[in-house]
Write a structure and sequence with these properties.
heterodimer; A: about 210 residues; alpha/beta; 8-stranded mixed sheet; 8 strands; globular; B: about 375 residues; 7-stranded mixed sheet; two-stranded antiparallel sheet; about 35% helix; about 15% strand
């Protein structure tokens, strides 16, 4: 390894942790549902933005699971606890009821084993929180009416290169949750960071759900 | 450094007095809180980094990790390398003279454990005036010592950096060790371990032991890549010389090793590996075993390491999370097997560097 590839000396003189940035809309909702001092598992934690926020603003004891090398490194730089693993093996290693809250933000739609992941979340956590883009947003429907698969800021992929293999609507999720015996204890259908009151199933861009095992 | 205070060993034996050979890099700060202890694995020593004057070929065994501008930057940390008891590089071991008899310890040198080594290292820290290490770090067997520090001296270690390690050897790991030991013990020049006075060295046993070791350090893919089925001869010679490249490699490694390593030390150190199992005292419960630990942890494993596989490292991670410890676990997708911990793998080194950056920032307050 060359000394130049580290960038370490430059980082050494600065603060060890980046200032907590403004949270993505769904992350703000998720943070509201985490109680102070909770033990939290963030699945697919990315660069640790939510984790750093929960640690700094809620005093939460947070662990992240992340597969990408670069994201893991970002978490290390923020001084966060992060476990490099895919979500399935990352979940399997934890005993039942290990965490107060297990978060899966904007990743559910990319899971191959959707049901298994939700069951595992309910096993290791006292409550689960998921967020996902609303496939039923009116713009998406309009796009389908025009004969094309929707591409939007919350789903910025073409049909042939999308990681989103299991897109759904809020109602779809509620049906699945009921079938898995999960009790929904919170629901936020958001657009531009605000709850959508009128026709939320059509107008919300993001759905955030909180649930508990039955 | 000479220690006159006897060391009580896990076996119940005691070492009356002993020598610990160590090396330091950088300078200890005024607060005496920037010390990093580097623990060695099977065949290494206190010579962690750098070169000795006049001996340019004697590069420290972890020189790519420790030094100025390296992940463990000796301009920011005071780094200590220590040779463990039972070894053959200057600390008291089977080659040393037993003051009680005036002869080499040989076979009478007591079996030492990872815990014994850690106790001896703590004695060294006392003498150097280091109350608490900023980090204790090691790979493989060295990482076992770092883990053991968190259990034996939880208040004396702020960070534990454990690379390519396991909470205990598997039956397969022990089996490989036993084959290596059998090779040594059945060498006619071994003489039950008392070969020093006879002026012989059980080289052929050591050679086989090292060859077996090397097979377990490399991955199948790595061997295929490095050697494949390449021949050193133009064609099959229909004999038993070193025709395949891999044979030549193993013979070379074995020969080199048998020139500088001590056979009794090999037996002792592989035994320390076999015995390491902190969960044993708790009915196999690693969570309980690690309960005293207060340190923050960095664990790294390598996907192709089949000697101490990622699954073993994950057991440690799980126990640490259950205990609520702060932990970073990096699982590096690298092709080099167990050996990867000694190599220049950029993702691995970046993770370690970033982790030590944080330690340095903590120290700076």
């Amino acid at each position: 390894m060359s000394a130049g590839s580290r960038g370490a000396p430059a980082a050494a003189g600065t603060a060890p942790r980046a200032p907590t940035p403004v949270l993505r809309d769904d992350l703000r909702q998720i943070a509201e549902w985490v109680v102070d001092g909770a033990r939290v598992l963030d699945l697919g934690c990315g660069d640790g933005t939510l984790m750093a926020n929960l640690r700094d603003s809620r005093g939460a004891r947070v662990y992240g699971v992340e597969i990408a090398d670069g994201s893991v490194l970002e978490c290390v730089r923020r001084g966060l606890s992060v476990i490099q693993a895919d979500l399935e093996s990352g979940l399997r290693m934890f005993p039942d009821r290990m965490f107060d809250t297990v978060v899966l933000s904007q990743t559910l739609q990319a899971m191959h084993q959707t049901e298994a992941v939700l069951r595992e979340m309910a096993r290791v956590g006292r409550q689960g929180i998921v967020s996902f883009p609303n496939f039923g947003h009116w713009r998406h429907l309009l796009s389908l009416l025009g004969g094309r698969m929707p591409v939007s800021p919350q789903m910025p992929y073409q049909w042939y290169d999308t990681p989103n293999v299991h897109l759904c609507t809020p109602k779809d999720f509620e049906v699945l949750a009921a079938r898995l015996g999960l009790v929904i204890t919170g629901r936020a259908l958001l657009s531009a960071g605000r709850p959508v009151k009128l026709w939320p199933n059509l107008r919300a861009k993001l759905a955030v759900y909180r649930f508990e095992p039955a | 450094m000479r220690f006159e205070q006897p060391l009580e060993l896990a076996s119940g034996a005691r070492l009356a007095g002993y020598e610990l050979r160590y090396e330091t890099y950088g300078t200890l700060n005024a607060a005496r809180d920037d010390a990093v202890l580097i623990c060695h694995a099977l065949n290494a020593s206190h010579h962690v980094a750098g070169r000795y004057t006049g001996q340019p070929e004697q590069v420290g065994w972890w020189d790519n990790m420790v030094g100025p501008g390296r992940p463990v930057d000796t301009r920011r940390f005071f780094v200590i390398g220590v040779n463990n008891l039972g070894s053959c590089f200057g600390s008291t071991g089977p080659m040393s003279i037993d003051p009680a008899t005036g002869r080499h310890y040989g076979a009478s040198f007591p079996v030492v454990t990872v815990e014994d080594w850690v106790n001896a290292q703590a004695g060294l820290a006392d003498r150097l005036g280091i109350e608490r290490f900023a980090a204790v770090m090691g790979g493989s067997l060295g990482a076992m010592q770092a883990l053991s520090w968190t259990i034996q001296y939880p208040r004396r270690i702020a960070h534990c950096v454990a690379i390519a390690t396991t909470p205990r050897l598997s039956a397969q790991n022990i089996a490989f060790n036993e084959v290596a030991r059998t090779a040594i013990r059945s060498d006619p020049d071994f003489h039950g371990g008392d070969y020093y006075s006879r002026g012989v060295v059980p080289k052929s046993g050591l050679r086989v032991a090292r060859m077996i070791g090397h097979i377990t350090y490399l991955s199948d893919d790595d061997m295929a890549e490095k050697f494949g089925r390449s021949l050193r001869t133009p064609d099959y010679a229909f004999g038993f010389g070193a025709e395949f490249e891999v044979e030549s490699y193993l013979r070379h490694q074995g020969d080199k090793f048998s020139e500088y390593f001590d056979a009794n030390t090999y037996l002792l150190i592989t035994r320390a590996l076999d015995y390491f199992d902190p969960a044993r005292a708790y009915g196999g419960d690693l969570v309980q075993a690690l309960a005293p630990a207060q340190a923050h942890f960095l664990l790294v494993s390598f996907t192709t390491d089949w000697r101490f596989s990622p699954a073993r490292a994950r057991e440690i991670v799980e126990a640490l999370v259950v205990n609520g410890r702060q932990v970073v676990y990096a699982e590096i997708d690298a092709p080099h097997g167990h050996d990867a911990f000694l190599l220049n793998e950029p993702r691995y080194h970046r993770a370690v560097a970033a982790y030590f950056d944080n330690i340095a920032a903590e120290l700076a307050g």
